[in-house]
């Protein structure tokens, strides 16, 4: 028979087992409830967005490179379809993708493909990004018009943007400090330029980081010794485009594959598009929409 001390010990052990079992069972139950609530909220957001979309409302956000195409296409589409209401904003490819993942927009404009990490984030949020290629683009390297440099190689661009070469005279140009102008890290143009021209190397810390193609162009135009890069659609006489590896950035050289710094432009949707989202993307892919692509200075798909 058990004495009083042994009996007390058994009771305490049984009580501990009950407590541990209860604690172990409550956490998963709580997590399941939280997950279920999160899924309900996501589904509610999707239903609300789908309802607005079916009624003609469409929100578009992302790449400043794609922005001129999207704005002009939206303007023309709404003229033909007065019931449609299309909102178009820039902010960079990364911000556009983030908004799509958060169920905040119908279309994310990007000048690069979605990353693996973004796909994971989207999957965790119940979003399934589907790419729609709408155009091709070349990333033009631009300098101040007073600079006499006509051609740069990819290796020279890497030397400039990593800070290895700091004066134009080292490249056969004037005795002037090189002012590096770059897009910021939320930009798809920044990522593609970094992959192709810099071979993955980091941009020098002295670089002036800009939020859009327009601000890059403006900075280079107003700064002697500056160098930057922009989408083809932003080229004007305010800046001077240089050859890269002996090839000038034009619609023809991008279409042929001769120009070395080129990329496709995308619109991403959550799943296969429906309603006005589907109609708007089909409009951009139509002959009329591809004409808009060309008029905005980019390379149509056909």
TrEMBL record:
Origin: domain of life: Bacteria
Subcellular localization(s) per the UniProt record: Cell membrane
Chief location bin: membrane
Residue span(s) of domain PBP: 54-288
One Gene Ontology term of the molecular function aspect: phosphate ion binding
Function: Part of the ABC transporter complex PstSACB involved in phosphate import. Involved in the system for phosphate transport across the cytoplasmic membrane.
Record's GO cellular component terms: plasma membrane
Protein known as: Phosphate-binding protein
UniProt-annotated stretches for the region Disordered: 27-61
Assembly and oligomerization: The complex is composed of two ATP-binding proteins (PstB), two transmembrane proteins (PstC and PstA) and a solute-binding protein (PstS).
Basic and acidic residues biased stretches: 38-53
Entry keywords, A to Z: Cell membrane, Lipoprotein, Membrane, Palmitate, Phosphate transport, Signal, Transport
Signal peptide interval: 1-22
Family in the record: Belongs to the PstS family.
Membrane topology: Lipid-anchor
Pfam families, sorted: PBP_like_2
InterPro entries, per the entry: PBP_domain, Phos-bd, Phosphate_ABC_transporter
């Amino acid at each position: 028979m058990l004495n009083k001390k042994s009996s007390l010990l058994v009771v305490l052990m049984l009580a501990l087992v009950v407590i541990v079992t209860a604690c172990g069972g409550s956490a998963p139950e709580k997590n399941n409830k939280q997950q279920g609530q999160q899924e309900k909220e996501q589904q509610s957001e999707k239903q609300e967005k789908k309802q607005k979309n079916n009624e003609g409302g469409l929100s578009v956000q992302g790449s400043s490179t794609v922005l001129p195409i999207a704005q002009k296409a939206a303007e023309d589409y709404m003229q033909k379809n007065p019931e449609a209401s299309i909102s178009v904003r820039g902010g960079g490819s990364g911000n556009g993708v983030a908004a799509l993942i958060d169920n905040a927009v119908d279309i994310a404009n990007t000048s690069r493909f979605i990353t693996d990490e973004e796909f994971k984030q989207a999957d965790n949020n119940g979003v399934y990004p589907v790419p729609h290629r709408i155009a091709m683009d070349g990333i033009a390297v631009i300098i101040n018009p007073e600079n006499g440099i006509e051609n740069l190689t990819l290796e020279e661009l890497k030397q400039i943007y990593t800070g290895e070469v700091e004066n134009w005279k080292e490249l056969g140009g004037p005795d002037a400090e090189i002012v590096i102008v770059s897009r910021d890290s939320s930009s798809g143009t920044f990522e593609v330029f970094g992959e192709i021209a810099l071979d993955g190397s980091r941009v020098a810390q002295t670089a002036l980081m800009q939020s859009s193609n327009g601000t890059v162009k403006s900075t280079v135009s107003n700064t002697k010794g500056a160098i930057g890069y922009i989408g083809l659609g932003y080229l004007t006489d305010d800046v001077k485009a240089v050859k890269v590896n002996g090839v000038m950035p034009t619609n023809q050289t991008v279409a042929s594959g001769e120009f070395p710094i080129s990329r496709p432009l995308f619109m991403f949707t959550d799943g296969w598009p429906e309603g006005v989202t589907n109609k708007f993307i089909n409009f951009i892919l139509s002959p009329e929409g591809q004409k808009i692509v060309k008029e905005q200075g980019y390379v149509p798909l056909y």
